[in-house]
Each structure stands twice: as C-alpha cells, then as structure tokens.
C-alpha cells in the first residue's frame, strides 16, 4: 500500500472497516457455494448466507467486546456445520477473526481458555452434528487446527506487543535515570565552583582585613594600602560568583554580562590577591605551556586556588611555592608550604577545628573527575604539599579513576605520595 492509500485509509477508518467486513462476507459466501459444489447432497444456500451475515455483522464490536463476539461467531459456525456445510477456512472466516482478536486483546489465560472452548465446540460439531462423520480430517481435525492456529498467532502478537511496551518503558526509565544523574553531577559541579569562589575570596578579604587591623596603629600607611585593595578582592569574588550562578539562568535570560570561567591565564591575578592578603607566592613553570581544554584549565586553576586559600588560612609561615610542569601527556601541579618554626604542619591542609572545610576533598574530586591523580601530605623535610597530575589529552572520566602517568611523565620526587602520608580531608 503506497503512501496516498495509507493516508486515505487513516482518514476514513469506518469506511475501511466496512470494506474489510464486506470482503470477509464475500469469502464466507464463497465457502457456502464451495460446499454446494462438492457435496453430493448440498444443503440450502440461504441459511448459510444468513448465518454468515450475522457472524460478519457481529465483528463490528470485536474490539470492544471480544468474548461476546467470539461466542456469537462460534454459535453461527456450529449452526452452519449442523446444517451440513463443509467447514472450510472460508466458511469459518468470521470465527477465525474473532478468535484472533480475542487472543490479542484479552489476558493470556482467558485467551487460551476461550480457544480451547471453541475447539471443543468444533470437535462436538464434527463428531455428532455434521453429516461428514466418515471424514475426521475434514470434520474435526481441520476446524480445530485452524482455531488453535489463530489463537496461537494472536497470543504471539500479544507477547510481542507486551515485550515492546516493556522495552519502551525500560528505555524511558533509563533516560530518566540518566537525566537525574546528570542533574546531580551538575549540582555537584556548581557546588564545588561556589565553594571554591566563596571560600577563596572571603578568606583573602578576611586576611586583608585582619592584617589591616593589625597594622592600623603601628603602620597606618600599609594598613590603608591593604584596605584600598579590599574592593578589588570583593569585586573579583562578585564577578566569579556571578559567572558561576549564571549557569543556572534560563536560555531566555540575557548573558551579555556573564564572565567566562577562569583558567591558568588568571593565575597572576590570583597570586596578586594572595600577596595582598600577606602570603608570599612563588610560581615556577617548567616545560612549554600547552593549550588546555576549558574543563582542564578550570580544574587546574581551582586546585591552585583552593591550595593557596588553605595556605592563607592555616599557614604557619606566609610562603607558598607553586610549580607547573608541562610534559607531552601530563600537567603536574605542585603547591608547597614550608613548616612552622615550632614544627607545626603547613597550611595547605584544611582546618581541623569547628570551622574545618572540604578543601582537600574538593581538590581530589576535581582532579579525579578530570582523569588525573591527587596526593596531599606532609613532606619529610617539613611542611605540607599538594601534588596532582592531570592528563592533557585524556577524555573526561566520571568514574574518578584517572590513568596512571607514564614513566616519562610522572611528577618528580617532590610531588609524589612518598613524601609523606596522605592527608585525609577534615570532616
């Protein structure tokens, strides 16, 4: 059937239904005349035609009431057989259609019970009511086989439809679970961004304000200079916070004032803000800088930012060393803080008091989500060190298991976990 005929059939369902039943009635009448042609004593023609018309007319309600329609067509077929007609597939056409629809639209147990009942009726008709008792194949086996075959076909299609519906439901559930998983991951990513932005800039502002208050009496000029830098720190915090929260905007919201995500190109400004807070930061770059993906660029920046923030809050000595080492496959970040004069731990670890945060946990999650490795711990010479290795060409991995660095790309001895026990993040 071509497209035009399908379109016409879909536009006129009642006309198509009527035409199909008229064609079925014509086939049934053909069965009536086949009996008159082959039987030595043919039965009357009009009772067969009338019963065929009743059976075909009952099929109008086969979808809404399959079991009553099956009962009507069964009674008509039994009556036709009792009149002496030959039970051919043409003459049994309405019954076979009703049995197929019943097996397709009713529960499996009901469908097979109805099929066995109709088969029993055909068996009784062939054994006791028909005049063809000498031919069991024509009177019994043929009608029963056709009934069971139509029941099996309808049951098979019902199972296929249920299987297709189950697959569609399973696929829909998988899509919902995947969408829910993506939403959770996006929330976690935005939460990490907000934590890093707020923690870093508020820590710097607090350090600058504390330093200014400390120097206000003895060195008022230095205190005023530090206070003059406070607006720049708060303005940078507002810019990054606006850019992060801007990810939650609707598509119709204006995005002209949204700043891009920070990266290693913003490292000089980050160092200047730390210096203004009283932390001396030394940056060393080894190897030729490589072009980083936006995700990797943001990850490296946030790890350095979080490490310097912790150093600003908890440093025993106001110094920190940042080392960036580029190789053909990896970018290695090492942030080190020297120990205190009294042997206390360095400041790169998160606080362990009531105000302790999730600095190390956040850095670890960022490194592993980018496919890299992360280590943090005390150094044997003294102090605390954060070291991570980020793959430059590895795809994003949500499993958190990054690739192991190759023999030529591993960090040097100052950046490995053998420098001391790995530090657990504060709760």
In a few lines, what is going on in this structure?
The protein is of the alpha+beta class. It is built from eleven helices and five strands, in the order H-H-H-H-H-H-H-H-H-E-H-E-E-H-E-E. It is 58% helix and 9% strand.
Describe the overall structure:
The protein has 427 residues and is an alpha+beta fold. The protein folds into 2 domains: 3-174, no CATH class; 264-427, 2-Layer Sandwich (Heat Shock Protein 90). It is built from 11 helices and 5 strands. Strands 1-2-3-5-4 form a 5-stranded mixed β-sheet, covered by helices on one side. β4 and β5 form a beta hairpin. The longest helix has 80 residues, at 136-215. It is rod-shaped and about 130 Å long. The two termini are 70 Å apart. Residues 340-346, 350-356 and 395-427 have low confidence and may be disordered.
Measured on Cα atoms, how large is the radius of gyration? 42 Å
Strand content: 5-15%
Instruction: Please give the domain count.
Output: 2
Q: Determine the N-to-C terminus distance.
A: 70 Å
| Beta strand count | 5
Overall pLDDT confidence: 78
Structural class: alpha+beta
Secondary structure layout plus pairing:
Elements: H1 3-11, H2 13-38, H3 45-58, H4 66-82, H5 93-105, H6 108-129, H7 136-215, H8 220-245, H9 267-276, E1 280-286, H10 294-314, E2 319-326, E3 330-337, H11 359-369, E4 373-378, E5 384-391
Parallel strand pairs: 1-2
Antiparallel strand pairs: 2-3, 3-5, 4-5
Helix pairs in contact: 2-3, 3-4, 4-5, 4-6, 5-6, 5-7, 6-7, 7-8, 7-10, 10-11
